[in-house]
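Predict fold of DNA replication and repair protein RecF; 367 aa.
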Amino acid sequence: MFLQKLQLKNFRNYSEASLNFSPGINVLLGQNAQGKTNLLESIYVLATARSHRTANDRELIRFGNSDADIKGLVHRRSDDLPLELELGKRGKKARVNHLEQAKLSQYIGQLNVILFSPEDLSLVKGSPTGRRRFIDMEFGQIAPRYLHDLTAYRDVLKQRNHYLKSLSMHQTNDRVYLDVLSEQLSLFGGSIIVQRQKFLTDLEKYAQELHLSITQGQEQLSFEYDSKLKDIKDRSEQELQQIMDTQLKTQYEKEIFQGTTLIGPHRDDIKFLINGKNVQTYGSQGQQRTTALSVKLAEIDVMKEQTGEYPLLLLDDVLSELDGQRQTHLLKTIQNKVQTFLTAPAMNDVARNLIKAPKIFTIEKGH
Ligand code: ATP
Ligand code: MG
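Predicted 3D structure, encoded as tokens:
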């Protein structure tokens, strides 16, 4: 798939903009603070209905305005699909083919994107929150059921934590309701874990191949789903639901004391291993970055496998963060395959040699 056209109105520092893109590589050049990242962000928001940099949609609306609007024309299979996301004071409206969607989950997934920014290079050594977010955002785009379960899980989790707090403050002593909440949480929790495990197995297959090639056959990359729940390997969804429910119920006292839910997918993590050793603990900085690169690039193939089409790739300032060999690898992987939007202060030599026929945009003060 590719994005043919993008129109922005009062998005960040863009008052109005209309751009036609190449299905190949689009290069956005410009000095600092001109609006390069803002443009990538608008594409990301158009696809996922949320920003990668802020949870507060107000920040996306141009200073002094009350609404922002992002319109895109997506070419998907043999169709042209108009998408629109309107951000206003009272939330957002999402339209597919000019029809407003009642639920955002019906909207997300029409356009698939993978964003790679310098912060993603710290996927491996960064926080578990970042790794969970990575799975949730990337997998959520291509798996509606996952997105649904995740939303439901978060709702129950909020209620359960709230209830644990009232138990801890002795406002109530009704454990039956806690049982009900635990069962509901386990229902979605078990389902989320089984889907994450499957996603990681799919991702691992491609990441392993890419990583071997980047490291010239030296490093075998593997993943592990790392959970606070015990005994969850090779379990069916039903078994996982049961396991989570049982384990929740064995630690009520601890959870009531702390006033929060201590186990479940909201606390889980991914472990990356090179030749069997944990990259986070034992890997060099270079190995950690290469791992992040392999993982990100592998997602392109996973999305293709699951949706039948390649996603868009948004590369924010990453070339300058990678050495020549890794830049070459990245650019070779995407060549002629994936519509790419790449920001940089200027073209460097590797990019000049490897990117065939880029469409170049010079971004200046939101124009
Ligand atoms: P760099 O090369 O430093 O990464 P950039 O071109 O990627 O720069 P952006 O992150 O896109 O820069 O930001 C450009 C400008 O947008 C900033 O100066 C910022 O103040 C401005 N900006 C951010 N949010 C808004 C907003 N809601 N309304 C108006 N301007 C905004
Ligand atoms: Mg930027």
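The CA atoms of residues 198 and 204 lie 10 Å apart.
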